[in-house]
Design goal:
Length: about 280
């Protein structure tokens, strides 16, 4: 069964024309309960698929794990409706010696697909301290190479191509421009967590020398997730929030917005972006 997209009967209406009955594909949105060692940590609304990546990335974002060895395994638990497993409950086993999440981390509310910070109990809990110092990352990327990332990301958005209603996050090598991994989800924060979770399973944290490209705006939440994974450069096709820009400056992250066509706006860390054509003219 395809649980990523769902067909729904619709009526297409055009002013001045007869309504037309038909079908449309929608991106699926379902809850996923993430447990750690049998204890519920959070419930997030997501698009099914790459759920283990999502759980692993979420644990990095929350500061529970910081490397591949911290994540031992994950298994689906029984969560049945009418006797059929929904595959909407995932229990994670942490690596040996890894402390379980503090009780204060347990989300008291369901995290919806537009807000991964929903359910935090205090303002202080919104900010999570990272073990990685991205300000020391000596990565550089050319402006010309950066401008190729949106098209590469768009070309890999298979679910978006079918539904038009889903976000994407892609991780690129800043030196070569290679797309290392791409994930889609109805929640932009989930798409980023799925990318980070892939890196956990590949034991690639911290993600030095990489660029995180998102198909949405750059929120504070996404900049914080990038920091927690050790990603030095965050680029978005849309605008950043004021807090995202302030946070990027604070932690030494390069933040790029409105990356479209052959232009972009740099909000923080512009010294990492090299304009090869300008350098050649200066030489």
């Amino acid at each position: 069964m395809n649980r990523i997209t769902a067909r729904r009967k619709i009526t297409r209406i055009t002013v001045g024309a007869q309504p037309l009955a038909g079908e449309d594909l929608l991106a699926v949105e379902e809850p996923l309960e993430i447990r750690v060692n049998g204890r519920r940590l959070a419930v997030t609304m997501r698009t099914p698929g790459n759920d283990v990546d999502l759980a692993a990335g979420f644990l990095v974002s929350e500061g529970v794990i910081t490397q591949g060895d911290d994540f031992n395994s994950a298994r689906y638990c029984a969560g049945a409706i009418d006797g059929v497993n929904t595959y909407n409950v995932l229990d994670v086993t942490l690596g040996a010696g890894v402390a379980p999440p503090a009780p204060s981390l347990e989300r008291s509310l369901i995290t919806n697909s537009s807000c991964g910070l929903c359910g935090k109990e205090s303002i202080d809990a919104v900010r999570t301290k990272s073990v990685f110092e991205i300000a020391d990352d000596a990565v550089h990327v050319t402006a010309e190479l950066l401008t190729t990332f949106p098209d590469k990301l768009r070309a890999g958005q298979n679910v978006f191509e079918k539904t038009g209603g889903i976000h994407a996050a892609g991780l690129f090598d800043a030196a070569t421009g290679e797309l290392l991994v791409l994930r889609e989800d109805v929640g932009r924060h989930n798409a980023v967590d799925k990318v980070i979770g892939w890196a956990v399973k590949e034991n690639r944290l911290p993600l030095t020398g990489t660029v995180l490209m998102v198909s949405s705006r750059a929120s504070f939440e996404l900049t914080q997730k990038a920091l927690m994974a050790g990603i030095p450069v965050l680029a978005a096709v849309s605008a950043p929030s004021s807090l995202a820009a302030e946070f990027a400056v604070e932690v030494g992250m390069t933040l790029v917005g409105f990356l479209r066509g052959n232009s972009m706006v740099v909000y923080a860390g512009g010294d990492r972006i090299i304009d090869a054509q300008v350098d050649e003219q200066a030489a």
